[in-house]
Amino acid sequence: MKSDLPAPHLETCILSRPELLAPVRAMLEKLAARIGFDETACGHLALAIDEALTNIIRHGYNNNPDQNIWISAWELSDPTGLRIQIDDLAPQVEVSQLKGRDLDDIRPGGLGVHLIHSLMDLVQFSKRPGGGMRLIVEKYHPTKTTLSV
Amino acid sequence: MSRATELIVDIETLPDGFLLRPHGDVDMARSPAFRAKLTEALKIVPARLVVDLALVPYMDSCGLATLIEALQITRAQKTKFIVCNLSARVRSVFELSRLTTVLTVVDNHEQALLA
After folding, report:
1. 3-state SS string over chain A?
2. What is the pLDDT of residue A149?
3. Does B61 sit within 8 Å of A19, measured CB to CB?
4. Which residues in chain A have their CB less than 8 angstroms from residue B56's CB?
5. Residue B96 contacts residue A112 (beta carbons within 8 Å)
6. Are A54 and B60 within 8 A, CB to CB?
7. ipTM over 0.90
8. Which of A116, B23, B60, B108 has the most CB atoms in a 10 Å sphere around its CB?
9. Of A21, A103, A108, the CB nearest to B27
10. Please, which residues have CB within 8 angstroms of residue A71's CB and are 6 or more apart in sequence?
11. CB of B38 within 8 Å of any CB in chain A?
């Protein structure tokens, strides 16, 4: 998946399988830690990405385990932080439909988008020009560091 | 079932019900196994069901949804449903989702038996 940004620090493609969520979480947590995020922020970032991937697998790909999901990550310098982009080829939906449920309405499901918004500093859903959906999330931290991976 | 999707859950018999202690992350891959264990325990309609999360370092919204489903069943059948021993990370997910306002969450095993 190409983008207008410089080459990402990390780029990978996974199949739409729930058992791949744990290794993706571990990889992104390690990356976030290396660029200076504390343990809590690393955990929040991993959870937000987990929720995004879960939504793609369940709702975008309707639990089909053989579809592709592309994950790219960039270290940001101004503000310092991390940008993660997730692309899929699932049927496109209106961005206005992608919102979490009212938290006072306690029922199973519907929490993922709410958690993504709660945990990240920037959340941007869009339709990809070539088909599928794109999610860009950013998390910032106050201490400027350089990537040393 | 592959190791990535299986979930070990210890089941301890209490005087008035059961204590379930899952081991490991509870995410989309493992929440079906978690749901199956909870459903199995609730079929007997115990007076008390305790879920001890001491050995769960990570839980996502799929795990939370499984607990909400169990909560709905326990309310319908008058089972006391208590969750205990949340790690800081899991507790933060509960709080972000406001689950602490509807679930009985206590600090430890001993409190769960008295709640």
Report:
1. CCCCCCCCCEEEEEECCHHHHHHHHHHHHHHHHHCCCCHHHHHHHHHHHHHHHHHHHHHHCCCCCCCEEEEEEEEEECCEEEEEEEEECCCCCCHHHCCCCCCCCCCCCCCHHHHHHHHCCEEEEEECCCCCEEEEEEEECCCCCCCCC
2. 46
3. no
4. none
5. no
6. yes
7. no
8. B60
9. A21
10. A10, A11, A12, A13, A14, A24, A28, A49, A84, A85, A86
11. no
> Exposed, middle or buried, A148 (CB in 10 Å: 0-12/13-18/19+)?
exposed
Judging contacts by C-beta atoms under 8 Å, the chain B residues touching residue A54 are 27-28, 60-62
pTM of the model as a whole: 0.90
Which pLDDT belongs to residue B50?
97
Euclidean distance between CA atoms B30 and B32, whole angstroms: 6
CB contact under 8 A, A108 and B69: yes
In chain A, what residues touch B57 (CB-CB under 8 Å)? Answer: none
